[in-house]
Specification:
Pfam family, one: LysR_substrate
InterPro entries: LysR_HTH_N (IPR000847), LysR_subst-bd (IPR005119), WH-like_DNA-bd_sf (IPR036388), WH_DNA-bd_sf (IPR036390)
Keywords: DNA-binding, Transcription, Transcription regulation
Protein name: LysR family transcriptional regulator
CATH class of the largest domain: Alpha Beta
Structural class: alpha/beta
Family: Belongs to the LysR transcriptional regulatory family.
CATH topology of the largest domain: D-Maltodextrin-Binding Protein, domain 2
Number of strands: 15
CATH superfamily of the largest domain: Periplasmic binding protein-like II
């Protein structure tokens, strides 16, 4: 299959190599031999007239031209691939079981996406699965769920970040009798700089450090260090620690609204970036069901 003399198999080979940077792993993913991978790459480089990858006995890496070509071709290939898969989905329908993970609480935004998917694909059974607060990506990688709705950011090379939900303001969970709770009753909001005076509960490992630093920032916007509170595995553990006075906890406003309780106050915070949820799935585990759910999320009028 080609377009304008260009063989799509050559592009698939190049894109796979650019992700793996290893001829053996690329061959496994493409279900061909390593020699076939080398042949396809040489053919593509021959069409272009220059090297796209440098290969030594120790490493494989993109050349500067290869990096530029990758940036240009990846969106075009994704668009072509998406159009083909959409046509296939429409032709055969979406059936089977789809397992979607979520963190903390399946709020009305998550359930709206679930309802839209179920209405469009009644032949597919959709199951929602709670995943640990401290392990946003493990269930996806382990195949326990097909995709997951997780708090951003996501910077995992083996995962695809799909549609993103609308951004939401952050609130700070504090014990009901905390000084901030009493003061907010009068002024309505606290400044993010005040996080420096109160330990913030954080998710433990295996959540990556960059992700934990968003949930529990190491410093205020002004650079003041934020004391670390206890590490917890689940959202419920964090709320219990908050109620016991062991620390405070940053949550998006919809999650806070779903966990209203008398021993915790949820205080609006001013000065921090809004939070957002996004749908992620494994690059190697993309299915028609996952793509269909992604479209249901992307097409919702929030």
């Amino acid at each position: 299959m080609g377009t304008g003399g260009l063989d799509i198999r050559e592009l698939e080979c190049f894109l796979t190599l650019s992700e793996e940077l290893h001829f053996g792993r690329a061959a496994e993913r493409l279900f061909v031999s390593q020699s076939r991978v080398s042949q396809l790459l040489r053919s593509l480089e021959g069409r272009i007239g220059a090297r796209l990858l440098e290969r030594t006995s120790r490493r494989v890496r993109l050349t500067p031209l290869g990096e530029r070509f990758l940036a240009d071709v990846r969106p075009a290939y994704a668009s072509l691939h998406g159009a083909l898969e959409s046509a296939r989905d429409a032709a055969r329908g979406v059936e089977g079981v789809l397992r979607i993970g979520f963190q903390g609480a399946a709020d009305e935004r998550v359930m709206a996406a679930v309802a839209a998917f179920r209405a469009r694909h009644p032949g597919c059974e959709l199951e929602t699965v709670e995943i640990p607060w401290a392990d946003p990506f493990g269930a996806v990688r382990g195949g326990e769920v097909d995709a997951a709705i997780v708090l951003l950011p996501v910077a995992e090379p083996d995962l695809v970040l799909g549609p993103v939900f609308p951004r939401q303001p952050l609130t700070l969970a504090v014990p009901a009798r905390h000084p901030l709770a009493r003061r907010v009753a009068a002024v309505g909001v606290v400044d993010a700089e005040e996080l420096a005076d109160h330990p913030v509960i954080e998710p433990g490992e295996p959540a990556p450090r960059y992700w934990r630093d968003v949930v529990a920032p190491a410093a205020t916007p002004g650079g003041r260090p934020v004391p670390r509170g206890p590490r917890v595995c689940t959202l419920q553990e964090g709320l219990a620690a908050t109620a016991a006075g062991r620390g405070t906890m940053l949550l998006c406003a919809p999650t806070a609204a779903l966990h209203s309780r008398r021993d915790i106050a949820f205080v609006p915070v001013e000065g921090l970036p809004d939070s957002a949820l996004g749908l992620v799935w494994r690059r190697a585990g993309e299915t028609a069901r996952v793509r269909a759910f992604g479209r249901a999320v992307a097409e919702l009028a929030w």
